[in-house]
Amino acid sequence: MLKARSIIELVGGPKEYVDKIMGVVVEKLKIDQHVKLMEHKIFEAKPMPGQEPLFSSFCEVEIEAKDMDDLFGFCFDFMPSSVEIHDPMQLLLKADEVNGMLNELIGKLHQYDIAFKNIAAQNILLKKKYEGTTPVQPAQKEEPKKGKKK
User: Fold this and answer.
1) Taking a C-beta distance cutoff of 8 angstroms, is the pair 68, 93 a contact?
2) Alpha helices per DSSP H over the chain
3) What is the CATH number of domain 2-91?
4) What's the rounded Cα separation, in Å, for the pair 107 and 19?
5) Between these two residues, 139 and 45, which has the higher pLDDT value?
């Protein structure tokens, strides 16, 4: 059994929404399959200096996981800003366990990389589309063409 302390952070707005979502995160952690939530303390959202209207909140959690694989699952699912294993102080890992965790990490990094590149490409296309547009002119009614009848 692994015991760890972790910090989960949220940034967003408005303040009430950030506080509400932090509560939702804790509720999800309570029923998570990877870890057992032992203790938690939620800190109220505060304004981020120089980045108004954003607010920041965090939660300190004490968790237990049966193995490193479950601890990694917690990290992937909740994206904590820090994790500190405090019991046991020494770990003995088998190479195949480490290989599996590293491959899962690499797979997630590739997913994030693809998502980031897709968003960046969409952003470039939107900028080009926006820069290439002119103010919208009201549609002009087309006059019927006068021509020869057959």
Assistant:
1) yes
2) 15-30, 68-78, 95-131
3) 3.30.70.560
4) 32
5) 45
Domain coordinates in residue numbering, the chain: 2-91, 93-130
C-alpha 141/C-alpha 50 separation (Å) is 51
Q: What is the pTM of this model?
A: 0.74
Do residues 68 and 88 make contact, with C-beta atoms less than 8 angstroms apart? no
Q: How far is CA 93 from the centre of its chain?
A: 29
Percent of the chain, pLDDT > 70?
A: 88
pLDDT tens track for 66-105: 999 899 999 989 999 999 999 999 988 889 988 988 998 8
Q: Is the peptide bond before 47 cis (omega within 30 degrees of 0)?
A: no
**Closest among 42, 77, 76 to 57, alpha carbons compared:** 42
